[in-house]
Amino acid sequence: MTELGLRLAISLTQIGAIMGIVIVTVLLLTLAERKVLGWMQDRMGPMEVGPYGILQPFADAIKLFFKEDIIPAGANKLLFTMAPIICLIPAFIGFAVIPWGPNWTFEIGGITVKPFVISDINIGILYILAFASLGAYGIIIGGWASNSKYSLLGGLRSAAQIISYELNVGLSIIGVVILAGSLSLVTITDAQQGWFWNWYLFAFPAPQIFAFGVYVISAVAETNRVPFDLPEAESELVAGFFTEYSGLRFAFFFLAEYANMVLVSCVAAALFLGGWNAPYPGTILELLGLPSLAWIENTMWFAVKTYSFLFLFFWLRATLPRLRYDQLMRFGWKVLLPIALANIVVTSIAVFVTQ
Amino acid sequence: MAYVFFGYFAAMITITSILVVVLRNPVYSTLSLLVMFFHVAGLYITLHAEFLAAVQIIVYAGAIVVLYLFVVMLLNVNRDDRYHSQSRIAVFVSIPLAIEFLVLLSGGMGAARRDPAAMAVDAQTSDNTLTIGKALYSTYLFSFEVASLILLAAMIGAILLAKPHIGKHEDKDMPQAPGAQ
User: Fold this and answer.
1) Of A79, A133, A326, which has the smallest distance from its Cβ to B58's Cβ?
2) What topology is assigned to B1-79 in CATH?
3) Within a 13 Å sphere around the CA of A24, how many CA atoms are in the beta-carbon half?
4) Tens digit of each residue's pLDDT (9 = 90 or more) over A273-315
């Protein structure tokens, strides 16, 4: 029983640490997005709260906490309260299989612990895909339960969009899975060690450049971000599926959207950009004679990759106008899907020939 | 420990399956169907079939039930009582099911005694994605290809039914910028 308790304690510590990191990242992102958008549009961004506006996320959080919580008349109370939580859980649960640092193991009281991944299961990617697809339920249910036409239309749009683009995400990942021969994110990242041309973006038999392009576009679409933010298109649908939400429940949707962005960025970094591996073999800290601190450099590389991907989201938002709905669907099914399928065929042939 | 999990999943599957049929609100029915699929996936995990569990969630919970929900919300069948009084059909369906249940109870006892823990999980089969892939593409290659052909035929049929004017004047529906293809 002590063994079980110890295991539980270690897992809970890891979960707490990673939840903390994700929430801090989300806080940073809300500020970074407004600052980056401001700079790109030749503005200052938020400047009032704290020096240079850096306390803005806390001001936002406090404002959302103290807002009145309104449940519209005619809304389905049970589902209306459940929807933000249904949206939030899948966004956070996916982080359980993301490797944040080197694949080390050590023993505590006879239990093998991997400090940089909560759970190394052998179906890692499928696990993330499975829970990412469940995030759509929060949006649809929230849209339906609000008893508002704008919300319902936003929810239905999001359902169609997520189903279409989830397929492309899954298919673009398959090339990497073929190269690595495993579904576990830990194994996939380990296989990309060495110089940066070992990353699956550039890897020898079949560089996954097209797959990466498809993944990036589909990931933007799956997280409902500009230019694919039709579920919440403010010029047509007020605010889409969360039109009727206020206060803390709105904050939950907001948190879920940003956590999803972090999750897809982590997956992109782990699958295509080598995860925690530096672009050069080994680590500098190891060469300096500090192998026990090498994990700092590795996790920093992971953070750099993830954050540059997140920057791409802001960049796209500042640059591109929104697509029309039929353009969105046509683009997903007639452009991205054939590219992803062709990539699978080419990768399989290349791997078969070179083996 | 395994029995606790099995008991929980089995009980939840039974309850939610009944709720799917009993609940009056079709949206609630669909959601309990979703919970049911989720617990079936949990049952697969207790049997060490993680791949099957993930596929179960991706395909059924992630895609199919979303489409059900889509249809239920769009059609707004909320107050349609036509489908709530089908007791005669239900009786007809339940008689063969009840017979099957009795057959399973009487004849299936020998099979039920097999202890799941006794089935050895060796290192070769522990990565069940690999095992399933190898089995599908070697032993069951023919049936696998036949199944995919049937699915393809169904898909083309569905497209034909949904778009009867396919290939006639498709481009006139939507004005397009030159080079938009």
Assistant:
1) A133
2) Four Helix Bundle (Hemerythrin (Met), subunit A) (1.20.120)
3) 7
4) 887 887 777 777 777 777 777 778 888 888 888 888 888 888 8
